[in-house]
Amino acid sequence: MRSLCNSVFGILLTAAAAVVVATPARSGEAPAPEASKSLETLKKEYRRPTAVPFPADNPFSVEKLRLGQQLYFDPRLSGNNTMSCATCHNPALSWGDGLGKGHGAGGTLGRRTPTILNLAWADLLMWDGRKSSLEDQALGPVESDMEMNQKLDELVPKLAAIDGYRTAFDMAFPGEGITLANIAKAIATYERTVVSGPAPFDRWIAGDESAIGESAKRGFALFNGKANCQACHGGWNFTDHGFHDIGLPDEDIGRGRQLPLPSMQHAFKTPTLRDVARRAPYMHDGSLADLKAVVEHYAKGGTPRPSLAEEMKPLTLTAQEKADLVAFMLTLTGDAEPVPLPTLAMPVQSPGL
């Protein structure tokens, strides 16, 4: 399983130097702050990390990982025993659900289901940043009547009635057993191992010039220059983990509900672009059908309003430049590997049954 291998053995990557030739910005276009940077400099910003970080108060263990994997895929964590975390965050759909808006026990949700890829490196979580860690987030969907609709005061006895879970919790949390906090810690441990695999882009910056095409290489220059995409989608994970109003015509005020500042109205968390080709439709509201539509939105500059991010400015991009940006983003999707389903904990059968 790639996610487990990446967490235990780390992600290895080297990079080679080259020169990025960026097109100067024309009048009225977004500035190109990266235009003077060489690929030697940029490669350090896009180099994959060598290990997955785990918090001091929830360190990694194989026992905790195995338990978290069982819990993640177990529909018995839902009130009606039919929905698991993987129902909405499906590894076959780049750890999302492929829908424009999420769907749970209470019907259609207000926002698109975000991927859980690479959340080990994230701080604030959810589209509006209302959760501060994976541990803080883990039980939110379980408890929500719109999502998994499981009463938390009934969850511990529900799992404690399953012999296999009592054993697994004793192994993962010696002397502590089954608690809500430990359920959250186990799920969070598994989710931190969900890491996107190396992509053609990584092979290219490691020195393989044949790994991506010429259009994608031009797109990389545009991404870091004229189009200014890196202002929010920088770094190896292609996100600043920040919140920005990108001018979608939507009444949802996003981060503004959590942080009532003028700049946070209609602001949503910047998603990773890793494996982005597998996650259409796009944006928090699922309103953009494909990457071509995404590029068109940014080129237009978004809906003008006081909270619109300062990075959002109309761009004069040619049809070829738009195609080059899409070609580049397609190189960020790695090879998919099957994620095996765990054997779930079961009650011990009585003799003779």
From TrEMBL:
It is an enzyme of class 1 (oxidoreductase). Keywords: Heme, Iron, Metal-binding, Oxidoreductase, Periplasm, Peroxidase, Signal. Residues 1-27 form the signal peptide. It is found in: Periplasm. PROSITE patterns: CYTC. The keyword Metal-binding applies. It holds the Pfam family CCP_MauG. One of its GO terms (molecular function) is cytochrome-c peroxidase activity. The lineage of its organism: Bacteria, Pseudomonadati, Pseudomonadota, Alphaproteobacteria, Rhodospirillales. Residues 63-163, 214-333 form the Cytochrome c domain. The keyword Protein transport does not apply. Its EC number is 1.11.1.5. It comes from Azospirillum rugosum. This is Cytochrome c peroxidase. InterPro entries: Cyt_c-like_dom, Cyt_c-like_dom_sf, Cytochrome_c_Peroxidase/MauG, Di-haem_cyt_c_peroxidsae, MauG/Cytc_peroxidase.
